[in-house]
Amino acid sequence: MSNRKGLLALSPLFVFIFFYLILSLIAGDFYKVPITVAFMVASIYAVAISATMPLQRRIDTFSRGAGADRLLLMLWIYVLAGAFAASAKEMGSIDATVNLALTALPSDLLLPGLFVAACFISVSIGTSVGTVVALVPIAVGIAQSTHTSIPLMAAVIVGGAYFGDNLSFISDTTVVATQTQGCKMSDKFKVNSQIVAPAAIIVLVIYALMGLSLQAPPQVPDVQWTKVIPYIAVLVIALMGMNVMAVLTIGIALCGIIGMADGTYGLYDWFGAMGKGIVGMGELVIIAMLAGGMLEMIRENGGIDYLIEKLTAHVHTKRGAELSIAALVSLVNVCTANNTVAILTVGGIAKKIGDRFGVDKRKAASILDTFSCTVQGLIPYGVQMLLAAGLAGVSPIEILPYLYYPMTIGVAALLCILFRYPKKYS
Question: In this structure, how many other beta carbons lie within 10 angstroms of the beta carbon of residue 343?
Answer without folding.
Answer: 31
